[in-house]
Design goal:
By secondary structure, the chain is of the alpha+beta class. It has four helices and seven strands, in the order βααβββαβαββ. Strands 1-2-3-4-5-7-6 form a seven-stranded mixed beta sheet. Strand 6 and strand 7 form a beta hairpin. It is globular, with a radius of gyration of 15 Å.
Length: about 160
């Protein structure tokens, strides 16, 4: 297993993994995967894929939390292919995102996770994220108003 920078030609595999997350119903409020152009624009920073035997089995990417310079923290997304779940792929990706984000000068990473996505909550906690609150009924998905657990990880190296 290796982690490397995501390339535009990885998009088809990244999209399939994103679609798997959509089908599961506990990964995002989105109902369809975006186009490459929309995804690329929304995730302009630190984009990684996990590869196993030359196949992309997971991805992670950062997205800006705010356009304001003083709020340079970023949101992080991590998705793992169904067949690779439980094998440590998410941990490898999130650990590497944390490491590279600190090298790039980011002091806060944030994540919003549905409370039903217990595996994602455990992963984030294992990587140093802490719960900062729950946004009750913040969005509607499939006819249900869903809560989102808000998590953050403050760097111990940057902004202390």
């Amino acid at each position: 297993m290796s982690i490397r920078e995501l390339r535009p030609d990885d998009w088809p595999a990244v999209r399939v993994i994103y679609e798997e997350g959509l089908r599961g119903g506990d990964a995002t409020f989105e109902t369809e995967p975006p186009s490459w152009e929309r995804w690329d624009a929304a995730h302009p920073q630190l984009r990684l894929v996990a590869e196993d035997d030359a196949s992309v089995v997971g991805w992670a990417a950062l997205s800006p939390a705010s356009a304001r310079h003083c709020y340079r923290g970023v949101g992080v997304s991590v998705y793992v292919a169904e067949e690779a779940r439980g094998a440590g792929v998410g941990r490898m990706l999130l650990d590497e995102v944390v490491r590279r984000s600190e090298l790039a000068g980011y002091w806060t990473l944030t994540a919003g996770v549905f409370p039903e996505n217990e595996a994602s909550l455990r992963l984030h906690e294992a990587c140093g994220f802490r719960e900062v609150g729950v946004r009750r009924g913040i969005g509607e998905s499939r006819g249900v108003w869903r809560d989102v657990v808000w998590l953050e990880r403050r760097s111990t190296l940057v902004g202390t």
